[in-house]
Amino acid sequence: MKDTVRGWRHIPQRYNLIGSKCLECGKVFFPKRIICPECRRKGQLEDIKLRGEGKIYTYSIINTPTDEFKTIAPYVVAIVELDDGAKITTQIVDCNPEDVKIGDEVEMVFRKIREEGDDGVISYGFKFRIKK
Ligand SMILES: [Zn+2]
Residue 111: which H helix or E strand, with range? Predict the structure, then answer.
């Protein structure tokens, strides 16, 4: 099953949560880093596919976004602490902003980010939702 192992490396990063793991201290970073801030030269980083599950570390409700995101306001932007150890900033979808709590368990989902102008290009990326 070599292909399943290799597979994710060929998928663009926006469809996967690819972070870096330091082989020296074991810390995980997202987005990817070149150098471990703890170990500097001593540390060696390797790509790691994050599982995309974690807990809400902190969050805020955005009521007055830029024009581009007006139609989806209010919405929740959170820092999620992944089970893998990294913290990432992401939007929380499929929820009432009032129901979101620190410590809620969340999982990654793929969602449309925007439809771009006349060429109709649609971008997708990862977001998170609260686990039921
Ligand atoms: Zn390190």
Answer: strand 105-116
